[in-house]
Amino acid sequence: MTANTFSLLVNEIRMLFNHLKRTITTPSMLLFYTIMLVGTYLVSSVIAILGSYEPLFVSVTTVIEATTDRGMIMSALGLVSLTAVVGGYLGRGPSAELTETDEYIMMPVPARPYQLFLAKYMRRILRKLGFAFLALLVVLPLIASSNLLLIPLGSLIVCFIIFMEVNYFLGGISFQIRSRLDKRFKTPLRHSILLFIALAVYIPTLPEATANPIFSLLIPSNAFAYIVMEMVGILAYGSGPLIGVICLCLGYPIAFLAVANLVDQDYYERFALKTSNGGKESRISRMIRGEIDFSESRYNDPLMWVFLKDFWSKMRKPLQFWKYLYFFIGMTIALYLNIVRPVWLPPFIIPSELNYAAVPAFLLVLVLVTQMASVNALLSFVDEKENIYLLKSSPFKASDIVLAKYFLSLVEVTLTAAPIVGFLAYFMRVEGSFYLLTLVAPLVLIFSATGVMVGAYVPVFTNELSDPPVPLAFGFPAINIGFGVLLMAIVAMYAENMQLVQVMPAFVVVVVLGLLALATNALRSYK
Amino acid sequence: MNSVKSIVERMDNDELIRLARQLDVSLTDRKVKRNLLVETIQGELEEHYREGIPWKKTRLNDLAIQINDLTKKFGKTVAVRGLNLAVRPGQIVGLVGPNGAGKTTTLRILAGIIRPTEGSVLVNGFDMNAHPLKAKQRLGYIPERPTCYPNLKVREYLTFIAKIYRVPPIDATLRMKEYVDLFQLNGLLDAYIGTLSKGNLQRTLLVGIFVKPPPHILALDEPIYGLDPRGAWSLKVHLKKLRDEGSAILVSTHILEVAEDLCDRFVIMNEGDVVGKGTLEELHDQTPNAHTIEEIFLELTGGIPEA
Lengths: 527, 307
Hints:
The structure holds two protein chains of two kinds. In chain A, 75% of the residues lie in helices and 1% in strands. Chain A has 24 helices and two strands. Chain A has helices at 5-24, 27-50, 54-67, 70-90, 100-106, 113-138, 140-145, 150-184, 193-202, 213-216, 220-232, 242-262, 265-274, 283-289, 302-315, 318-340, 355-373, 375-382, 387-393, 398-427, 433-437, 440-461, 470-493, 500-524, and strands at 348-349, 428-429. In chain A, strands 1-2 form a two-stranded parallel ribbon. In chain A, α2 runs parallel beside α23, α17 (355-373) packs across α20 and α20 (398-427) packs across α22. The longest helix of chain A is centred in the first third of the chain and has 35 residues, at 150-184. The radius of gyration of chain A is 25 Å and the shape is globular. The model of chain A is unreliable at 278-294 (pLDDT under 50). In chain B, β1 and β2 (77-87) form a beta hairpin. By secondary structure, chain B is of the alpha/beta class. The mean pLDDT of chain B is 88. The N and C termini of chain B lie far apart (57 Å). Chain B is elongated, with a radius of gyration of 21 Å. Chain B has twelve helices and ten strands. The A-B interface holds A 1-4, 7-8, 11, 14-16, 18-19, 22, 100-101, 103-105, 107-112, 265, 268-269, 272-273, 276-279, 462-464 and B 74-77, 79, 100, 105, 108, 111-115, 132-134, 136-137, 139, 141, 143, 145-153, 156, 160-161, 163-166, 192, 194-195, 219.
């Protein structure tokens, strides 16, 4: 006798609903949500006022049509599917959605793995749609200023979500293929299948294979590329996006059902190994971490001790190695592009008459890039999980803990942002972009402080320390974008005045110290 | 039947009305006297259980838990090596050992969370690998670190578990009331699990297990964790009662007093190996120099440290 799938689905929806109910009935949470939504809406309005982006879009359309073709766009989106397949094969596939509670509650009950997968997936897709709706709501002013139509844009976002979900399923399929191969073969040669899977996914997206548009639309990434081209009007065939939407929507249930059928005990096993002895670290992580005992450090300063503890703890995660690798390779390429300026890869030159829109757009991109990179700062406290109470009860000053977290965050955020800024410097050249790029430094300083502050407040709001409440997680970018806009306003105000070199540092110092003081206060107010 | 009647008497008004609806008792009057409702429900229940309480007729397989040559490796680390273990109905077996001995890994394999590298695990006669759903049907598992969905209320969680195991609604309501009373969760039924203390979370998980009808096959990893003395006492008494009624229980613990008080037989593990097995008397025979269970444990897991 097995559990009823419907009960599992209802349970997941009930948890989502209860989560929402708890949020809106908790005044502090509600306040944070309100600040987040209203704040982002206002910021979005301010950015919209700074520049009308419609002419910029027209210009970008011309540039894209002149420098690229349909085949290239399809191949580029094919890379997304390729990455998903490779990521699924090397990673944990759909089991990444499972939690420790699922392991203890759901895995021992008489339910089939696919039933749990369906329930978890339902929750995932509902959350995504909710977030997409909220995001659409708060960027309404930007949409209006760009003269974009809401319904087509909403449809495009839905298509994007479907496309990303199809990629998630493709990753799930390659995860299952690996699991099955691992059970049957021990030879390392079995992993050569990844090459075949990758080729099978990518070859149909190459220009030679996409010459026949109708046939090629059977591939989800091609269908999505087709939808984008038809909806945006760049390199459009002129036949409307409907065929692409139908093909993409057909691919979605097929991929979904394929994963649901393939999900088996390995779905549990791969997750459970994460919490088992010896399953925690990859070989490469063990290789690079060596046998360093940071407790033997000659530094006796608590700030340095916390800094080193965090640094080496991070180093013991496989992701950290890839982050450093990305930094070195990314910086090498960015420096090569900026110094050599190869003729075969020209930058986008935006006409000077569009500077009134291009400069704010450039600044906006700068703020968004730094914001993405500064997520590391948010995690500096969140990664501590329950250990935060150990840290708090240790004989360190709260300010030392906060400063240690802040300094390491600066390093982490810089490592992440630097290559992207390098690419931005090369590809997106607007008037004064060289000077505007220096704004990255104050942005990194402020955004890292915001991340540390928001992360420090997580234990004040919830007992689930590894899972920041949604309003906090969303409040983080909202606060950052607000500060970014303020910074832009200061630059605009003092653009022709030498006082800028006094006002800007003073502003940054005050904001950073204020945020770190709030973080220290949060640490002191843990229950 | 008397126990069912007393559960009904202890129910509050909302619970009585819920049960009355489940029993299709007509509630047409705007007001109904409590005593009358209790009597009506008791009468309906007598009719409902006319042929006896169904779970009292169920018997477990003669070897409720059977672990054969179990080995589990994580990479090159051997967590459990060649474990053989059997638990029969009417037995409580203690899985005892120091940290890292392989106890939790054994229970996770038994619960069907991870698969063994070698060997087999049979629960109620069903191979966990080949027939996981049948094997899990009678199994109740308490993890080492109690955790549950924070956004569910206690009542919702218990109802969910009852639905997962397809416990008939009337049975579920009665059993829920019985165990909510036993583990003193009455005031917390409408609390979110995320707001519970560790002890109350452990109680909730235990009630979740007992909502299913007996006989049980229980795999309990440190079940006393977080419970206050009263809660711990209630649990121990209840586990002994379940054993006497024909359940099979495997308890992993390193609280030796609990093991001694609760278990009929012991399996002592150290670094993945079984280093001792049997009743307390048999273990005494294996370690003539040891006088207490603590000394037996230390003797078998590396020797008694010198003072």
